[in-house]
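Backbone description:
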Amino acid sequence: MTMGKSIFSLYLCTRQSNKNMKTLLPVAAVAALLLSTGLTGLSRGLRSEPRTDRPDTLVINTTEIGKDIRGFNGPTPLEIVLVDGIVAEIKPLPNQETPGFFQRVTESGLLKAAVGKTAHEAAIHHYDAVTGATFSSRAVIDNIRAGLRSLETQKGAE
């Protein structure tokens, strides 16, 4: 793996004097942490970034992973948040989809259909496209699957 923009940032929440600190770990510590947690082989799009006191949060950004997955007007990247291996949240990232059509996708419950499932369950789940926003919803579905399958591929490569 080369150093540069494609490298992910790994943060660890720690407690020091009853105060939460966000500390960027040095490269050697990152490697040790990855080896000890079984998350070796992480690539672009995957990073561990706790949003709370929980260091067991993994965020998958499909901007690179799904760069070839297109909605009606272009890529539709997502941010998939997993806590303890369970999908906690899926958020759309900025995209070029027609706002009215993409709003149908966000209001349909499609982004919440994977919440509460394991990464594997969510990757193989049958999602229904949203009527009137088929291209956008198919792109969202394909990004969910691509992001979660990339996690499975990384874990399988260990």
